Amino acid sequence: MELLSSLGDGFLVALTFQNIGLALLGCLLGTIMGALPGLGPSNGVAILIPLAFTLGLDATPALILLTSVYYGAMYGGRISSILLNIPGDEPAMMTCLDGYPMARKGQAGEALALSGIASFVGAFFATWGLVFLAPQLVKVALLFGPAEYFALFVLAFATLGGISSTNQAKAAFAAALGLGLAMIGVDTQTGVPRFTFGEVHLYDGIDFLVAIVGLFALSEVFIFLEHRGTDKDSSTGPKVQIGRIIPPWSMVRSCIPTMARTSVLGFIAGVLPGAGASLGSFISYSMEKRLVDRENTFGTGDPRGVAAPETGNNAAAGGALVPMLALGVPGSGTTAVLLAVLLALNITPGPLLFTNNPDVVWGLIAALFIGNVMLLVLNIPMIGLFTRVLMVPPRILMPIVAMISFVGIYGISGSTFDLVVMILFGIGGWVLRKLDVPLVPIILGTLLGNEMEVNLRRAVTIADGDYSVLFGSPLTIGLWSIAIIGFIMPMVAGKMLKRRMQLAKKTGEDTDLVD
Amino acid sequence: MKPNMIFGRAFAAAILATTIIGGPAAAFEPEATECIAPANPGGGWDFTCRQFGKVAQDIGAIPGTMQVVNLSGGGGGVAFAEVVNKRNDSNDLVVAASTATATRLAQKAYPGNTSDQVRWLGSLGADYGVIAVAADSEVETLPELLDMIKQDPRSISIGGGSAVGGWDHLKVLIAANEAGIEDVRSVKYIAFAGGGEAITQLLAGSLQAYTGDLSEAKGFVDSGDIKVIAVLAPERLEGEFSEFPTAIEQGIDAVGANWRGFYAPGGMSDEAYEYWATTIHDVYESDQWKQVMQTNGLAPLDLSGPEFQEYVDASIARIEELSREIGLIK
Amino acid sequence: MSDRIFGGIGLVLAIFFGIQATMIEVAFMSDAVGPSVFPIIVATIMGLASIYFLVKPDPAPDWPQAGRLAEIGFAVLVLFAYAQLLPVLGFVVATMFAAGYLAWRLGSKPVEAVLVGIGTSVGIYVVFRLILGLSLARGPLGF
């Protein structure tokens, strides 16, 4: 087959000592940057661009280095999610939900190994998807006009229910808060500043990294401060057992259907520009919860709840390369940076890339395969090392986490203002956690809010103010239907759950529900 | 290991470079050079800083390595305010800028700051604007498109990669203005996050036309997906781009160049200003920069020192006038 | 009760947000939807959710006692000071103090806290500045 021989040529390009060395370097640096809160894949890649230039690398080796960082960061984000309950980057947010409970139960090693395998599976299938489907998938991306994107984002929010809270109103509040935060800044469709109160620093909006690091990492520090020396200290203290490192086969097997489904789902989410890896991991988790969570174990350390978002976000990372390479459209922050690199290297992404620069494309794809295997091989033995983090007492670990969060934000934007906003988010995050308001919808809101609004406005503006355009194509109707089903289902299921909880409560202590 | 070897070599080269440059006979010699990129790493301004720094070091125009500092926020306004308020006397500092900077200054989008608070140093090239349609579109020329807008503004949605009032939008308005469309506000402009996204929606059929920079459109022109109906350059471009008609030759007097260049703190000494203007000019003339221009699709625009100051002043005045005319500013 | 207060604050926030949204001035030209519609929808959802908390509050969480709140308050103050002093003192010095303070308040003995402060700040400086080449704040001492 022609494709396979092209891929073979790609492997010839990628399999030089220099390129393998670069891939290894990229994987290692990427994993570390992914794991550090505040440094996500996009900043990780951006930080290493000067390195690639200083080394005087050609196009292919430079891309191999930078995409290894990209894939590495997607692997690395999960480490701090599982061990510290602090997502290393935004797509790893969903991994906190079941990964951290698993670690608390003494299954940190298993959670890390399982998520490593899930990451591998997601990235592996996505890379094959890139090989075989890139040209056809471009057509899928072209099916999505503004109205379709809006419906897709509505769908994402409709499935929010029950993600991490039994109180739907609190999830709705959190989502609205996130969307509201996303509105801050200059409105691209009219050029007027909104909710900025004349503050120049707010004109570009609030960086979601600032929000995520504040909400998750700093609020965690505050919680440790609150609990130190009290009886709750034992539950947050370092008494976690590391447990076994290789998960039992039965656990892996139970996750195989999950990984298969979420590979596809994540990949599609990645292919759509503007959705990206965060949406991939989010939709993977929420859909999988709907499908298989019959005993309500998601959120309490269900291995499938770890496998789903990790497969999803790594598949999406691969998927996001499709529109970047074939259309020159970045599907996520990271691919936007990679795109800038491509342009700087005199490579014009777009429909002709595969014919004009086959060596670059196939070398890159081969490098993705190599990097993925490398990451799996690196990650599994290193689990023992990672879990050592849990042995570090919080009084030493937490200051380090806090300071890394600060430096991650400051090093990128150079702005003291961002640090202040981050601290405010930290306080807000602490209060909201006390009140049992889920943080995930806030981040989802800040991440997707602008795209959601802008696509609504584009669609209606193009149709000259006719709102019916939002339901104007078969694809939009399909997406709206899924959204509505996804919205109603948890309401019915939620009622059943409440009844069950009330039964349970009767046997337990009497709690005053009114207060 | 291989990467280490490369590391070592680059390091050695860097040391060599610093020792060779003893001291050009300029009156001013910067101590530690610094370039502020008013955006996050990976953006256009960041690239301007990094590539300029690299070439300047390679040709020995500056001593040592130029430090690139990212200072993002407010579409460049945060960096501008920082330079004006805190770094006004620095002689070692340059800041990356482009037409977007001039546009925002003209529209008073940096609250409290004006263009005369800094000194404009020089340009490193320009990216000319294009107006394009899908390959299967019936529209063949710019006047045809503008006629359709004149007859029924609602029938044509134009997409571009900048916000409303931004440069991609203004380019269309300049053309519309020249074509005699009275109320340019009726032109339906849809803002996207980048040129690529707008082109995708052009291909998907959501839009009827695209406005952006030539470098963004290049890949899709080569593949035959879109056709350029006008380049907003004073005359036809060189090389492979020479086939595109300019707007001027179609009778519409519209020119729109997105230049890249630098400004310096307003309190910079004349010696230092001269030093930097010369450095930018030297970099522009170098073979390495010619290479960078070619890879980035940059067209020639060689202005430095007072010449560039004049150019920026004029272009800010023009954007201001246009923005006022269409009601973007009061 | 906590949820009621929270609902009240949420409602005020939603109303404030909604009012601000209607006050957005469109100076130039507007698209068919305008910059206010979506924020108003968001404010409505926020307001409805807040009313729900007012009507059906969850049981209150265990709020920490005054001493603990003061502890968190002080940490916040130290972090604010850190953010402001970072460009003045330079990264290494400022971080040393902030990390040391946090370590001390999280239960380290003074000597250990000093060591954690120095270790964290130097370690981060080496990794982020020297290896990754990020520009961290430069103080009077050059680091």
UniProtKB/TrEMBL annotation, chain A:
Signal peptide residue numbers: none
Source taxon at top rank: Bacteria
InterPro entries, A to Z: DUF112_TM (IPR002823)
Stretches assigned to the DUF112 domain: 21-444
Segments crossing the lipid bilayer: 12-35, 47-71, 111-134, 140-162, 169-186, 206-225, 325-348, 360-386, 398-431, 477-497
Keywords for the protein's UniProt record, in alphabetical order: Membrane, Transmembrane, Transmembrane helix
Protein name in the entry: Tripartite tricarboxylate transporter permease
Lineage of origin: Bacteria, Pseudomonadati, Pseudomonadota, Alphaproteobacteria, Rhodobacterales
TrEMBL record, chain B:
Annotated Pfam families: TctC
Keyword Calcium set for record: no
Signal sequence range: 1-27
Family note: Belongs to the UPF0065 (bug) family.
PANTHER family: TRICARBOXYLATE-BINDING PROTEIN (PTHR42928), UPF0065 PROTEIN YFLP (PTHR42928:SF3)
Keywords, alphabetical: Signal
InterPro entries (alphabetical): BUG, Bug_dom1
Name of this protein: Tripartite tricarboxylate transporter substrate-binding protein
Gene3D superfamilies: Bordetella uptake gene, domain 1, Periplasmic binding protein-like II
Automatic annotation (TrEMBL), chain C:
InterPro entries: DUF1468 (IPR009936)
Pfam families in UniProt: TctB
Keywords recorded for this protein, A-Z: Membrane, Transmembrane, Transmembrane helix
Domain DUF1468 intervals: 9-136
Sequence intervals crossing the membrane: 37-55, 76-102, 114-137
Listed name of the protein: Tripartite tricarboxylate transporter TctB family protein
Organism of this sequence: Paracoccus maritimus
